[in-house]
Design goal:
Number of strands: 0
Shape: elongated
Number of helices: 5
Helix content: over 70%
Distance between the termini: 81 Å
Largest sheet: none
Length: 149
């Protein structure tokens, strides 16, 4: 093997693994999302350091061209990453829907509590007197239709 290609493979694999570790260190990429990327980076490093490993594995699996094994493994890893992200997206959508429902419930409950504490709008200041909003009088905000809904 050409020494330049050998060195380039090792440097590229080391840079890939270093980039993944750095993203995890900065909390840009969480560990559970980095697993498959690390697997791919470590496999690339092993093949770069020991190039005959790829030929041996391809021969063992009955693959005529070792490069086809590289493509097969890469596609498999990308499929697993995509599957993992799809599962995570489903979990996040479920949480978002639950939070939206809880927020709507809390908003409704808060509105009901605010309406139950609003003083009568007849201006007399008598808390025992019935509100005159049903007869068309305007409330404190000037909108009587909100109270009659």
């Amino acid at each position: 093997m050409n020494p330049v290609a050998y060195a380039f493979g090792i440097v590229a694999a080391l840079l890939a693994v270093a980039a993944i570790v750095e993203l995890m260190r900065r909390s840009t990429l969480r560990e559970r999302h980095a697993v498959w990327w690390l697997v791919g980076g470590i496999l690339a490093l092993v093949v770069a350091v020991f190039p005959t490993t790829l030929t041996w594995a391809a021969h063992l699996l009955g693959i005529a061209v070792p490069t086809n094994l590289v493509f097969f493994i890469a596609i498999g890893l990308l499929f697993l990453v995509s599957l993992q992200y799809g599962a995570e997206l489903t979990r996040v959508e479920d949480k978002l829907r639950t939070l939206a429902e809880q927020s709507a419930f809390h908003d409704l409950r808060l509105r009901e509590l605010e309406e139950s504490r609003t003083p009568p709008a007849d201006g007399s200041g008598d808390a025992a007197a019935p509100a005159s909003d049903a007869s068309g009088g305007a409330g404190p905000a000037g909108d009587a239709t909100e109270r009659t809904e």
